[in-house]
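chain below, 252 aa
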Amino acid sequence: MTMLIPSEHDLHAYADGQLDPARRQDVEAYLASHPDAAEEIEQIRSQTEALRRRHADLSRYAAPERLDPACVRKTLRTRRRQRMALAATVALTLGIGSLGGWQARETAMRSGYLPMADAVHAYRMFAADAAANMVDFRSSQPSELQAWLNRHFMQPAPLPDFNAYGYRPVGGRLMSTESGPAAIVLYQASNGESILYYMRSPGRALNFTHGKRRDGDLMAQYWKQGRYLYAVVSPGNTPAARAVQQAVAPDA
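prediction:
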């Protein structure tokens, strides 16, 4: 009788104990005469047993709680709330920081603020030298200059008259500032000395009050009237200019 050589499938089935009795006898007879095949079967059995032991009784071990779907959903909700709380905290911190920053900035600006510094700057630019050549609207008539202001501003204050102190108007000039439109009217004495009358929109100067201050060799006197802020800038130490300063503010 010819011995049938078992297939690889037969060998694995034999190693796993899944062959029927008749076929198992044939495989055992073959292995008895082929020790190398018998050794391979033992290796297969050893590997199978090792895998069985490694994965045996997995049903005894419950899945980790952190992998439970309900627990996963709860963790996600917790993390979402934590992120929202963190975002709110950051937003509040930034808000407080921004508010504090703006308050500090405003305080610093107040501490370094020079009232009507733009008027003094305008004097140095347009009135210090050759004032008559620095105007856009030339006129020595107060009525014409007043009409000119009326065309560009709503209810401006009456133009001051410094003729009694030796200063006559020579013209005006429109300007633009960060606070809005502005205008200057230049007055000049016979000796070439100039006085500048300045008006502009108040901008953010909500608590602006009248006052005066020296800026180098100049005196700036300022006040609020109606819709606008006004200033008269004059040389600080000449007799004629001091007379104007007394007229603008008797306590000057």
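The longest strand covers residues 168-177. The helical segments are 8-15, 21-32, 35-54, 69-111, 117-127, 142-152, 239-248.
thats it, cya
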